[in-house]
Design a protein that fits this description.
The complex is a heterotrimer of chains A (about 290), B (about 375) and C (about 300). Chain A has about 290 residues and is mainly alpha-helical. Chain A is about 70% helix and about 5% strand. Chain A contains twelve helices and two strands. In chain A, strands 1-2 form a two-stranded antiparallel ribbon. In chain A, a hairpin with a 3-residue loop joins strand 1 and strand 2. Chain B contains 14 helices and 13 strands. In chain B, strand 1 and strand 2 form a beta hairpin. About 5% of the residues of chain B have low confidence. Chain C is an all-alpha fold. In chain C, the strands form two sheets. In chain C, strands 1-2 form a two-stranded antiparallel sheet. Chain C has a two-stranded antiparallel sheet with strand order 3-4. In chain C, strand 1 and strand 2 form a beta hairpin. Classes of the chains: A mainly alpha (about 290), B alpha/beta (about 375), C mainly alpha (about 300). At the A-C interface, helix 1, helix 3, helix 4, helix 5 and helix 6 of A face helix 2, helix 4, helix 5, helix 6 and helix 10 of C.
């Protein structure tokens, strides 16, 4: 039986599910061209360049024509600032959690030590804890801690420890690490140690063995974990809300806050740009892949 | 997954994301000279009067979402050279939760009246030095010295509004005139309510003839029974943007606040705002300085600056609430009569004094709060 | 000293795990313990915590109530148990639907040409990289009375000259279910895919050689071997559904109260952190119990997070 042959029913179902996954995305992109500032009902595509009427009476200058909201987006300092924060937090927390998570995975799979059982168990906590509990818990912890340190060292004013980008990054690392660790652990489980032993027999020390033998083999797992950590960080709202401070607003918080007033199509424009970037990357990857073989 | 390809993907994503982020840095205006400072929208920034001495370089504000005309923030940053860091919240309770946990570093917050008393009791906000706020003279005295903060020791007003009933005249045959009308069966499954236990339970108390801020258990039990009949008729609860449901036709009437009603009416003139006979709910958003703020001079500079008429009138233009700033009204009357007229002629932004006289205000109910919450959970949660 | 470190395997292990352990203990275990302590306290007049040791919050959750109709001093108030029940039901429904939708797609990708598999997987992940709140908001745009679906249906009805009444889809429990299924679908697709991918071709060929038709092959070979993935996916879906509050907030019109909404409410509007903490711990206990029994029956798949 041809292993790549599939029952047509499966193919149809797959198309439908992909359609389900992307329907909201398509709607998001469509509404990025909505000729309506309030973005509640689709009033049609922005028809022209220049002056145009929106929502009945509002006259708006739109030199960018149909891409009006994209232009507005690029001028919107708040959104781009939030986007920058979100990316910074995601990169830093992903990098850190990947490194220490991989270390932890190695420890748990390869070694025996006293705190092994406890460590393994503690990794499952973020998976079962409600985000709001974690968020508030961390907030209280930081507040007490900062209060103590600030008083002890006599810090005041701007040099005081307080909530901000740093606290958000730290809390993101906290919920990402378990995922990285579990993924890498899974990868390590199938790993045959004899290659490592062979390398050591040939004279390589632990570090070189790790770098040249172990790491390349577990790399797919490490990168999957990193990808997961990155995704979790990008989207986090609840925990970020409770641990953020002045100037450290992230996109999810900004967007959720916007829902209070008017959520203009700018947000749709932002989503569209984001999706384009990711899709382009995927497309390029596909080209690279086919060219490699 | 091949690691080489993955790294290429990551690099592409990273580079493009950074490029996008960097591009967004534009839009900052530059002073065109030392005579005129212009914001990026072309608005000429008025000079600060009086100019406050400041040494701080930053100002951290924790405020409601979408409550500031962009020119207001930009002009302040330009004329004083102070960078504003803005964090936002969409409910007083969120703000309270963060402030009471400690560890935050904000210079200004915007509590609504009922939570001010609580924050004073919990020592979360500090006393204001009114001598440092000469522009307070611009504020209508009707908004000062109110029961929640006698003598304005801790807060000064920002904007005020009213919670009342909104309906779509095109789809509602007999318009409601009172809170009690909401119980009419013809409105079933067509209403949007604020997701606010105090407003909804309070107005139920009013229909029963009781005090809006009652702490009496028996009265609250009665309100709960009455509310249990009503809640199944509510289509949705929304304290973020209730006008959306009305404009979109998902609901035909409901409880909303001033700003929402005005914007809905602008979008669809058939949407009307009516003040219920038992009394609409007044509220006021205020400025307060949290304990431990590190940029006090910048905070006072900010409050003084925005209270100037030539700046505050922007709120008339962008955020249609009742406006406590007399200087702003004067300025608009003289320089932007169309905005002024639209504002004054609308019963939404400029309600009849009898409405205000008849209105009620949310006050802290202290130990009765858990009762309110349990009622709320029960009427919403039971099916 | 380095030499001694080299020889002491146990010390090496401890060293490697320490940074992670610091984070886990500091940012998870300590806040959890704090929550536990608070849950035994009482609420003071202003919403602060009066530390003590009392089970009254837990009893209240389980239905113990002194606020009873005449005569009785103690009675059962099903309110909170109802909320818990509703959340479990929704989580269960979501999980079943997600499995039904995820399986065909995962199967398709697992059997696809190896070169294209990554692309298909990325296509599954791309929606996740937009923003969670925006995705839910997009569903509002789809489902509302004058939303995209109604517009399309109305247009189709117009083509056939049929009368059309817009469907009321938004602000119903159904909308919440759709939203939840949508949000968590990718988290089931990936684990099932991983376990399906591991099934080697010779197994299929062997089954065919032995005379099994495709359905039989599926039931006897494919399905059992893919169970670890299904288990992992179930855990990744069931637990978060229990705790999410944003989906029911936005799509249910705040009429659908789940445990997540209850907890959020306690910490914010109701200002009763003691009750909220108790509710959180009960939620965690429930998820732990479900996870334990489920993995006991089906095994704990490493596919829980593998891609």
């Amino acid at each position: 039986m041809n292993p790549h042959r599939r029952h047509p029913a499966i193919s149809i179902a797959t198309v439908l599910v992909y359609g389900f996954l992307y329907a909201p995305i398509i709607v998001l992109v469509l509404y990025a061209f909505n000729a309506s500032r309030t973005n509640i009902i689709f009033e049609g595509f922005i028809p022209s360049f220049g002056e145009l009427k929106m929502d009945g009476s509002n006259v708006v200058q739109s030199p960018c024509g149909p891409f009006h909201w994209f232009c507005e987006l690029s001028k919107n300092r708040e959104v781009t600032h939030a986007a920058r924060n979100t990316l910074t937090i995601a990169f830093v927390s992903t990098l850190t959690s990947t490194i220490i998570g991989t270390m932890a995975a190695l420890a748990l799979q390869r070694y025996n030590f006293r705190l092994k059982g406890f460590s393994q168990l503690s990794l499952y906590i973020p998976i079962v804890i409600p985000e709001i509990v974690m968020g508030i818990g961390i907030l209280v912890l930081f507040s007490q801690l900062f209060g103590l340190i600030n008083n002890a060292l006599g810090l005041g004013g701007d040099s005081r420890l307080s909530l901000g980008l740093g606290t958000v990054i730290v809390s993101h690392i906290a919920f990402s690490v378990p995922f990285v660790t579990l993924v890498v652990q899974a990868r390590l489980q199938g790993f045959d140690k004899y290659i490592e032993e062979a390398a050591m027999d040939l004279g390589a020390n632990e570090l070189i063995t790790f770098w040249r033998v172990t790491l390349p083999t577990i790399l797919p797992g490490v990168l999957s974990g990193a990808l997961l950590a990155f995704t979790l960080s990008l989207d986090d709202f609840v925990i970020t809300f409770f641990t953020t401070g002045p100037g450290a607003t992230t996109l999810p918080i900004y967007v959720y806050g916007l829902l209070r007033r008017i959520i203009t199509p700018q947000v749709n424009a932002l989503s569209t740009v984001w999706i384009l970037i990711v899709l382009t990357a995927v497309f390029l990857l596909q080209r690279l892949q086919s060219r490699q073989s | 997954m091949n690691n080489k390809m993955f790294w290429k993907l990551v690099t592409i994503l990273a580079v493009t994301s950074l490029v996008l982020a960097a591009c967004g840095g534009g839009g900052d205006a530059e002073p065109t000279g030392d005579t005129e400072i212009v914001a990026s929208t072309g608005f000429v920034c008025p000079a600060p009067e009086p100019r406050v001495d400041v040494t701080s370089e930053e100002l951290n504000i924790f405020v409601w979402t979408e409550y500031f005309p962009p020119e207001m923030l930009e002009c302040f940053e330009l004329v004083y050279g102070i960078k504003i860091n803005r964090d936002e919240y969409s409910s007083n309770e969120e703000m309270y939760a963060k402030l009471s946990a400690g560890g935050t570093n904000y210079d200004l917050v915007q509590p609504t009246d009922y939570i001010v008393e609580l924050m004073i009791r919990e020592e979360l906000i500090q006393e204001m030095d009114l001598t440092r706020l000469p522009n307070l003279k611009n504020i209508d005295t009707g908004y000062l010295d109110l029961p929640f903060d006698p003598g304005n020791k801790y807060t000064i007003p920002y904007l005020a509004g009213i919670d009342a009933i909104v309906y779509n005249a095109d789809s509602v045959e007999t318009p409601p005139t009172s809170w009690a009308d909401l119980w009419k069966p013809e409105y079933a499954d067509r209403m949007v309510f604020l997701d606010d236990s105090r407003v909804v339970i309070g107005m139920t108390l009013l229909t029963l003839g009781y005090d809006f801020n009652s702490r009496d258990r028996a009265q609250l039990e009665e309100a709960k029974a009455k509310l249990t009949e009503l809640i199944p008729n509510v289509k949705l609860f929304d304290s973020d943007s209730p006008k959306t449901a009305i404009i979109a036709g998902d609901a035909d009437l409901g409880i909303v606040w001033t700003g929402e009603a005005f914007l809905a009416n602008q979008e669809n003139p058939a949407i009307q705002f009516v003040y219920p006979t038992e009394g609409a709910v007044l509220w006021q958003d205020n400025w307060a300085i949290p304990v431990g703020a590190s940029h006090l001079d910048a905070a006072y500079a900010w409050m003084n600056y925005i209270m100037q008429g030539e700046i505050f009138w922007l709120l008339l233009r962008d955020y249609p609430y009742t406006n406590p700033n007399l200087a702003a009204l004067e300025f608009a009357k003289a320089n932007h009569p169309d905005v002024y007229d639209a504002f004054m002629n609308s019963p939404i932004t400029n309600p009849d004094p009898s409405v205000i006289a008849n209105a009620v205000v949310i006050e802290d109910v202290g130990e009765a709060l858990p009762i309110y919450d349990e009622i709320w959970t029960e009427v919403k949660g039971g099916e | 000293m380095l030499q001694r470190l080299r020889e002491n395997r146990s010390a090496q292990g401890t060293l490697l795990v320490t940074p992670t352990l610091i984070f886990m203990v500091g940012l998870l275990i300590i806040p959890l313990l704090l929550t536990l302590v608070v849950s035994f306290g009482s609420r003071d007049a202003d919403g602060g915590v009066v530390y003590g040791f009392s089970f009254h919050n837990y009893l209240r959750l389980l239905g113990y109530s002194t606020d009873c109709p005449e005569g009785q001093s103690v009675c059962f108030n099903p309110l909170y148990m109802d909320i818990l029940g509703r959340s479990v039901t929704l989580a269960f429904q979501t999980t079943v639907l997600v499995i039904l939708l995820a399986y065909p797609l995962a199967y398709f990708v697992a059997r696809a040409h190896p070169k294209r598999r990554n692309t298909f997987l990325f296509l599954v992940l791309v929606p996740l990289w937009t923003n969670f709140v925006i995705r839910v908001y997009a569903w509002m745009m789809l489902l509302r009375k004058e939303g995209v679906i109604n517009i399309v249906l109305g247009w189709i009805a117009g083509l056939f000259g049929l009368p059309f009444q817009p469907l009321e889809m938004l602000y119903t429990p159904g909308a919440v279910l759709v939203g939840m299924v949508y949000e968590f679908l990718p988290f089931m697709i990936l684990p099932i895919f991983t376990s399906l991918e591991k099934i080697e071709i010779p197994l299929y060929e062997a089954a065919a050689d032995l005379g099994a038709n495709p359905i039989r092959t599926f039931l006897r070979v494919t399905l059992p071997l893919s169970m670890p993935g299904v288990v992992a996916g179930t855990i990744l879906v069931f637990i978060p559904v229990m705790g999410t509050f944003i989906v029911s907030d936005l799509l249910g019109g705040r009429q659908v109260i789940l445990v997540g909404n209850l907890i959020q409410n306690q910490f914010l509007s109701a200002r009763d952190p003691t009750f909220g903490s108790a509710a959180s711990l009960i939620l965690m206990a429930m998820t732990l119990v479900v996870t334990y029994f489920y993995t006991r029956k089906f095994g704990f798949g490493e596919e829980i997070v593998a891609v």
